[in-house]
């Protein structure tokens, strides 16, 4: 059995690929990351005292309730109810492999120590990942500014809340039944800030983008061989390589970023400061996904020319048209949300989903 340790700083696409390919792989939290998390969590515990300053999301409500202080004795109850109003979604469920990848990525994000969660929470997420219990999460319900809806459904799985469902060994089951069959505790108590730390951010978009890119890399050598079968590669291919390399760099960096609010930063004189920022936005990934969809359309055009005649050519044309549709960018379609409070919403979630779909189509086209 191979054990991979995450520390919040060194999770690469290659490592994710190795973990996914290894059926015996187990992922654990590194000792160094555990110590960092315990240190920042101690500050959260201090802020739970009655004479502590008001810190958004730690001892207050959220959104319009940001100025309402939540008493320490109410925090367990508050955190148990918090996922429900956010866990909105519709449409078919995302593939289980996407959901498992989102758990791995979120555990790594929290392992950085800036989110102020207990190591026990990260270990709970990893235990669900290692048991291959995949949260059932609707495919529609995120603008991509922050994947609140899909991630709230993930939170319900981690906590073992009512109404949640999960995939286990190919079956869609009530969550608690799935957890029980996997030999895991059916519930886990989330404490102060631990719902917000899991729910706020762009991890679902990142999971979709990472899996699509890894699949694209599997196809890349076949695509290159096919396009160069008549001699030299098309002139535009060097431009494609540039975009592919850029996208890989973006995804590797975004695997190891903190994407919730507020974040805790250690002060020189001791203690921690809570800092708010637009950490949940995934603009750069949305832009990269739109560019990759353009790259796929270019490659698909050339693959189409290599397709045989008759039925194969007709099928290739059908696939090509679908891939071209995916190349219609969405990142610039920024529609304000939350009554105008969020003024830039780049729809990176949709861009990533389109890339995921376009890669599947490109694989079929290559097979022709």
Give structural notes.
Helix 10 packs parallel to helix 12. The chain is built from 14 helices and nine strands. It is elongated. The chain has a three-stranded antiparallel β-sheet. 52% of the residues lie in helices and 9% in strands. The chain is mainly α and 368 residues long. The mean pLDDT is 92.
Structural class: mainly alpha
The main pleated sheet reads as: 3 strands, antiparallel
Overall average pLDDT? 92
Stretches where pLDDT is under 50 for at least 5 consecutive residues are none
Total strands: the figure is 9
Strand order of the largest sheet: 4-6-7
Oligomer: single chain
Q: Tell me the series of helices and strands, N- to C-terminal.
A: EHEHHHEHHEEHEEHHHHEEHHH
Determine the strand fraction and express it as a percent band: 5-15%
Q: Helix content range of the residues, please?
A: 40-55%
Shape: elongated
Query: Rg to the nearest angstrom?
Result: 22 Å
The total count of helices amounts to: 14
The N- to C-terminal Cα distance equals 38 Å
Quick gist of this model?
Helix content is 52%, strand content 9%. The chain has 368 residues and is mainly alpha-helical.
């Amino acid at each position: 059995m191979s054990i991979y340790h995450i520390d919040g700083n060194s999770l690469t696409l290659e490592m994710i690929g190795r973990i996914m390919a290894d059926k015996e792989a187990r992922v654990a939290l590194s000792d160094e990351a555990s110590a960092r998390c315990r240190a920042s969590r101690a500050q959260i515990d201090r802020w739970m005292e009655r004479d502590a300053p008001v810190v958004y999301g730690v001892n207050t409500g959220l959104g319009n309730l940001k100025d309402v202080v939540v008493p320490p004795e109410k925090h367990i109850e508050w955190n148990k109810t918090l996922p429900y109003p956010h866990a909105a979604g519709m449409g078919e469920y995302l593939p289980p492999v996407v959901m498992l990848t989102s758990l791995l990525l979120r555990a790594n994000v929290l392992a950085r120590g800036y989110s102020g969660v207990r190591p026990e929470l990260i270990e709970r997420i990893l235990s669900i990942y290692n048991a291959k219990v995949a949260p059932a999460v609707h495919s529609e319900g995120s603008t991509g500014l922050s994947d609140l809806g899909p991630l709230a459904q993930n939170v319900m799985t981690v906590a073992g809340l009512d109404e949640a469902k999960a995939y286990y060994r190919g079956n869609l089951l009530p969550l608690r039944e799935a957890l029980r069959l996997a030999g895991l505790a059916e519930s886990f108590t989330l404490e102060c800030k631990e719902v917000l730390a899991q729910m706020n951010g762009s991890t679902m978009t990142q999971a979709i983008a990472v899996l699509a890119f890894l699949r694209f890399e599997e196809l890349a050598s076949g695509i290159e061989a096919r396009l160069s079968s008549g001699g030299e590669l098309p002139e535009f291919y060097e431009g494609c390589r540039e975009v592919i390399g850029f996208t890989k760099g973006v995804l590797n960096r975004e695997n190891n970023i903190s994407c919730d609010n507020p974040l805790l930063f250690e002060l020189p004189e001791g203690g921690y400061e809570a800092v708010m920022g637009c950490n949940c936005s995934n603009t750069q990934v949305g832009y990269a996904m739109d560019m990759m969809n353009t790259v796929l359309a270019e490659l698909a055009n050339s693959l189409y020319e290599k397709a045989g005649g008759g039925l194969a050519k007709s099928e290739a044309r059908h696939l090509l048209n679908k891939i071209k549709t995916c190349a219609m960018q969405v990142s610039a379609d920024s529609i304000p949300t939350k009554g105008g409070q969020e003024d830039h919403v780049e729809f990176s979630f949709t861009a990533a989903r389109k890339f995921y779909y376009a890669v599947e189509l490109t694989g079929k086209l290559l097979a022709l």
